[in-house]
Amino acid sequence: MKREGSPKVPTRSKPSRRGSWIGFAGLAWELLIVGSLALNLVAIALFASPSLDEGGAPPLDFDAEASVAASAALVGSKHSEGRDEEISVSSTSGSRPTSKDAVINLDHGDPTMYESFWKRMGHRGDITIAGWQGISYFSDVTNLCWFLEPEFDHEIRRLHRLVGNAVADGHFVVVGTGSTQLFQAALYALSPPDTPHPLSVVSAAPYYSSYPAVTDYLRSGLYRWAGDASAFKGNIYIELVCSPNNPDGSIREAVLKSENGTIIHDLAYYWPQYTPITHAEDHDIMLFTVSKTTGHAGSRLGWALVKDKDVAKRMIKFVELNSIGVSKDSQFRAAKILKAISDGYELPNPKNKYKLFDFGHLLMSVRWKRLREAVKVSGIFSLPEFQSSYCTFTGKRTETYPAFAWLKCEKEGVEDCENFLRSHKILSRNGKHFGAARKFVRISMLERDETFELFIERLSSLT
Amino acid sequence: MKREGSPKVPTRSKPSRRGSWIGFAGLAWELLIVGSLALNLVAIALFASPSLDEGGAPPLDFDAEASVAASAALVGSKHSEGRDEEISVSSTSGSRPTSKDAVINLDHGDPTMYESFWKRMGHRGDITIAGWQGISYFSDVTNLCWFLEPEFDHEIRRLHRLVGNAVADGHFVVVGTGSTQLFQAALYALSPPDTPHPLSVVSAAPYYSSYPAVTDYLRSGLYRWAGDASAFKGNIYIELVCSPNNPDGSIREAVLKSENGTIIHDLAYYWPQYTPITHAEDHDIMLFTVSKTTGHAGSRLGWALVKDKDVAKRMIKFVELNSIGVSKDSQFRAAKILKAISDGYELPNPKNKYKLFDFGHLLMSVRWKRLREAVKVSGIFSLPEFQSSYCTFTGKRTETYPAFAWLKCEKEGVEDCENFLRSHKILSRNGKHFGAARKFVRISMLERDETFELFIERLSSLT
């Protein structure tokens, strides 16, 4: 259905699905990629057959952006500031590979695999914002978090009730510019303002590679990165518990047990597509992000569930000082996106068969199956193993399919897995950034189908 | 024109224009307010007569939100953490007064006066974002600022060329979550990472009240607030130059002249509605914000024009560490909003007579005229005076109409103007927060018509 009179976000012009492709890499490769994608497509088709009349875009649309980016694709980047930098943006970041031997960038956890789901959703995920809406700084001054849009608050609580992964009742919702901002807000909130020495911030290795850099970049007098929680000696600290853990997918609890210590639970990946939901978490500070829930990383939106009012107030004060609140546009949109997800489960409708967590879980299961097969074929890598558990959300025993693969090179003579993969034009994140050995790398499992399939093909060929 | 199939941002239900009003404050007051608004309405009508077929909402629409907020309105707030807090959010923040003796909150620079312009613009400022758009973290990896949307970049440069207020050519555009984030990014970029002592950050008093708090809240080892630039002794520093200045509207240059010092130019208010555009500024770091340009404070979006590549890179690194980029949704929308403004001037069209800067300038001129009259009638206040200048944008000699009024109490026995106004239910920001005397307050001139008119009426009555 075409809509008149509603201006759309400008999109870059799209060539035909062949166009630049054939000239660039040849028909043979195009056919190969389409062939290798069959498994995913079949899996997806099982529960979500797009109807033509719903305006869903074709699932494997190639656009001009990819061709432009790819034509400049190089290993490394003109913008890269060296591999010790936390995030190394290269000319291949966020784009599709455009030939069989292209660089495959799996360094970031860019959740572009969700694009195809939202294309299938048709207009259910669309939003129109009128020019005059959302002008004021204030969203709801009756809420402690005065910059939280009421609809977003409502849909967050509804989604947690639906999924059963966290207790939102009795918690304040604090919205942030991604969970990255909320992580800093929580550090600020938990550090005494007049502390003579910075509070120690720790996390059990392997820990999320951003924690050290984000804790230390301003050399704050309030808090300071103190490394692996398992090696920490002391009673006063902030322990970061990421569960399921980034990078290795493990389910975690705090390793330190002091009464004077505090804990931030980063639950970005505690959603049914990645792991069985075994119970509703009910901690003092729980962080979530839209990026890993729905795929909308570009919206830069996260939320915290916070039990203590004074801690919530200090987190809100941080967001106020750091950015005077959080984009209303992102909140309007995310409210719509979360609503579409919950409606998919709660409003039975033969036309409304699009279920995000089902899509995500099935796609992740196919990907992990293919990854484990490729690792077996290659014979030079290993992966963590996970036990299945009963998932209260699906009502079934389900497997764990983490958003990242924590891959270890077992090949003799290879000490640095990232370098080894880089020599085969696969970009990954070195284990050393996670407080682990360089034999490990973190690989994103959330890229677009064609990127993932090319990765599997290349990994299988390594010996 | 009604559009089918394009879901809108949920809006709170609107009662009829009387409804709760009459019950609450009586018809008499409603008539008074409507009467006092006549001057503004006439002024606006001079150049922007809304056509019914364009879907523009009525200009003085009262909605349920205001009634709800107002029914709880109190002087002070349950959320206020005391007047020394930088931003004191109260139950009256962002809402309209609902009776003649209601609290009038002019503490914030909430630019809600722009709502009526965007309502008149009809669908020209609307945007529809499809569910699958803007998923990736990355906007354009060929740009140094990889999270900057190309359309937003384009419209920023176009607007600066149109207005002639700043040289964008030869500058990098760095996008931020409001200019507040970019201010911190600039501090980070200008501070040597290995500095043994925090760099001194100064600004000539009266300075923007947020500068000290935003500089110091994390007790950074990189930089530290050092107060009034005019009193600073030393050669190494970052000087903040806000021009036109918040709070007093004065045109400023750096007061310190050391070769080893650096300067951040905060040009948030250097737009034709507030001040004559006398020349295009061409400094190393220039900060702008969508809030004060178009009114969209809720979008939390700003931009910096940065001359030096390494400084730009470090600012980008800050935004990466602070929030992994900036909301794409806000950027999509702001690109559309800026485009609508530039189109209003550059695409002559009898139906397209809506010109933001003309609207803003005319409305501000009416408001300043009324404010000066009220001050004269009252006899206990004074205001700064400004010289007119030739404005290269309008091609006319124009006056200065700052976004804030820097009001001084001249009444004998009144040492604290904020307290005095508060006793008359007018909330303002105390001069002490700006490094000035308590006889001064900052008053927002950007609130909605009815708030401003009630303020003028009450101010005139004070003796």
Automatic annotation (TrEMBL), chains A, B:
A Pfam family hit: Alliinase_C
CDD domains, alphabetized: AAT_like
Keywords in alphabetical order: Membrane, Pyridoxal phosphate, Transmembrane, Transmembrane helix
SUPFAM superfamilies: PLP-dependent transferases
InterPro entries registered for this protein in UniProt: Alliinase_C (IPR006948), Alliinase_N_sf (IPR037029), Ethylene_sulfur-biosynth (IPR050478), PyrdxlP-dep_Trfase (IPR015424), PyrdxlP-dep_Trfase_major (IPR015421), PyrdxlP-dep_Trfase_small (IPR015422)
BP terms from Gene Ontology: amino acid metabolic process
Low complexity bias: start-end ranges: 88-97
Protein name (record): Alliinase C-terminal domain-containing protein
Signal peptide feature range: none
Cofactor: pyridoxal 5'-phosphate
Taxonomic placement: Eukaryota, Viridiplantae, Streptophyta, Embryophyta, Tracheophyta
Stretch list, region Disordered: 75-105
PANTHER family named in the record: BIFUNCTIONAL ASPARTATE AMINOTRANSFERASE AND GLUTAMATE/ASPARTATE-PREPHENATE AMINOTRANSFERASE-RELATED, TRYPTOPHAN AMINOTRANSFERASE-RELATED PROTEIN 2
UniProt family annotation: Belongs to the alliinase family.
Membrane-crossing residue ranges in chain numbering: 21-48
GO terms for MF: carbon-sulfur lyase activity; transaminase activity
Domain Alliinase C-terminal: start-end pairs: 104-462
